[in-house]
Design goal:
five-stranded mixed β-sheet; 5 strands; 8 helices
């Protein structure tokens, strides 16, 4: 379970940062940045916040709603940043992830002096003292909150995208390469600005489209 051990290493506000959507074939990569101003969080958050991958969709939604409620109350600060498919294709997924993290950090109402970033790679350009934490979403409340915020925000985005492009199952697969997604690509092809053309499975469909 996460705690505030890493946050307590710093004086002043600390942002937890995590991303969602590095693996999918479609949609943006999204980062969340969360500052927990009041370390005496409500019991439901202290008990419920964890790595978003360990939580059910319903539990993630509940935690996200609670974070937004506490943001309105001034107890937490939530920033969301994204990098588009075009940026992923142009920069590569790692640099696009760093770009999304910088945008999430910039979206915070106040700029903390330190950031705890999930993983082992420091995002370039982040205007703060950065500490990476491997599996940080299971160790730090701030990173766990950022993990939930990024995942739920991106899932909502992909569900809206599914309304416009209903042939790929985005509302269920969030852009990952499921059977429904593959079938959609076979029948309807690659969507400009939606699919990541630099990803090998998508490139294969692009190649097929060019065949006479």
């Amino acid at each position: 379970m996460p705690d505030f051990k890493y946050e307590k290493q710093y004086v002043g506000a600390v942002a937890g940062i995590d991303e969602a959507g590095r693996g999918p074939w479609a949609g943006p990569v999204v980062a969340g940045a969360v500052v927990i101003k009041d370390k005496t969080l409500p019991p439901d958050l202290l008990e419920g916040l964890d790595d978003s991958k360990k939580l059910s969709p319903a539990k993630r939604e509940k935690m996200y709603e609670r974070l937004r409620e506490l943001q309105k109350a001034g107890i937490v600060d939530v920033g969301i940043g994204e990098a588009s498919c075009e940026e992923i294709d142009r920069l590569n997924i790692l640099q696009a992830t760093f770009l999304a993290m910088n945008r999430a950090f910039a979206a915070l109402r106040e700029r903390p002096g330190a950031a705890l970033v999930d993983g082992n790679q420091k995002p370039s350009g982040l205007p703060a003292e950065v500490q990476t934490v491997v599996k940080g979403d299971a160790k730090s409340y701030s990173i766990a909150a950022a993990s939930v915020a990024a995942k739920v925000w991106r899932d909502h985005y992909m569900a809206k995208l599914a309304e416009k492009y209903p042939f790929y199952g985005f509302e269920k697969n969030a852009g990952y390469g499921t059977k429904a997604h593959v079938e959609g690509l076979k029948k309807y092809g690659v969507v400009e600005g939606v699919h990541r053309k630099s990803y090998k499975p998508v490139r294969a469909f692009l190649k097929d489209e060019k065949q006479p």
